[in-house]
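Exercise 7. Given the encoded structure of a 279-residue chain, write a plausible sequence.
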């Protein structure tokens, strides 16, 4: 237990969640120069965890000093902040539990912005966004997979596929979650992504298999990071007195390190492999 605790704290220090000492001002200024747009618009199911997600992402930005955030919470803000020209103001985009067909002013320009070198990060129902009607939607192709369904919330043990990536280095060999809504993914090809977290059995009926939870990939010149975790407030937040909390505080601490590492990687602030492990 002591060894795990030390490793976990070391991971937090490396990720920038725990602060120690005074940073190099030049490096801090360069990192803070990264601007990220956090999108939480929904046109389908709206998760109650969205306000928590917005708060946590803002706190991670401030504590890590790695980037600054702006928000798109409604159609008007999307129309103003996500035009082809406005996209140039940001280095990356986070879709935190978005759902449905979002009213992007220029969807093609958005996809091309990621392909041209910007970062893209999505949590949980970011994969339940822009479903294709005839074939795979360009958004899902960019993301690397698409939400198909889920069953009852359940506890799972996620197997770590890359123990050196900034999004997963702190987990060790696995990450246990006591209760979460686990997505089953379709239109997913492991030969086109770098897997980070997977299940080796069906989350509910426990049939052996291969079920992706988190991955990253290159998309043109851009970097894409996705994690299907993030349905519950107590996955996102570390508040030990949170009403209805089931997952231990350590789970949300580890999850925050997970998404912060993914964000930093997608912004090009941390190195990490994006080569598909499956050939």
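Solution.
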């Amino acid at each position: 237990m002591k060894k795990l605790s030390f490793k976990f704290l070391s991971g937090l220090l490396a990720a920038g969640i725990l602060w120690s000492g005074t940073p190099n001002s030049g490096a801090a200024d360069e990192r803070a120069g990264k601007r990220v747009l956090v999108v939480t618009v929904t046109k389908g199911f709206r998760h109650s965890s969205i306000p928590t997600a917005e708060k946590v992402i803002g706190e991670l930005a401030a504590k890590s000093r790695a980037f600054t955030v702006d928000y798109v919470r409604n159609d008007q803000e999307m129309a103003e902040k996500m035009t082809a020209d406005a996209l140039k103001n940001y280095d990356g985009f986070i879709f935190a539990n978005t759902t449905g067909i979002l009213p992007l002013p220029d969807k093609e320009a958005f996809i091309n912005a990621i392909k041209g070198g910007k970062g893209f990060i999505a949590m949980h129902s970011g994969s339940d966004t822009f479903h294709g009607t005839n074939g795979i939607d360009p958004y899902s192709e960019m993301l690397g997979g698409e939400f198909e369904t889920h069953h009852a919330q359940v506890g799972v043990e996620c197997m770590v596929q890359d123990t050196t990536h900034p999004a997963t280095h702190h987990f060790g060999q696995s990450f246990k979650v006591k209760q979460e809504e686990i997505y089953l993914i379709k239109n997913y090809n492991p030969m086109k992504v770098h897997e980070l977290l997977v299940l080796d059995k069906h989350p509910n009926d426990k049939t052996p298999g291969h079920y992706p939870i988190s991955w990253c990939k290159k998309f043109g010149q851009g970097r894409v990071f996705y994690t299907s975790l993030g349905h519950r407030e107590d996955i996102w937040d570390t508040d030990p007195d949170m009403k209805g909390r089931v997952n231990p505080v350590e789970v949300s601490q580890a999850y925050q390190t997970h998404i912060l590492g993914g964000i930093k990687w997608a912004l090009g602030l941390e190195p990490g492999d994006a080569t598909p492990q499956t050939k």
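Remark. The chain has one domain: 2-15+27-266. Students should compare their own answers with the one above.
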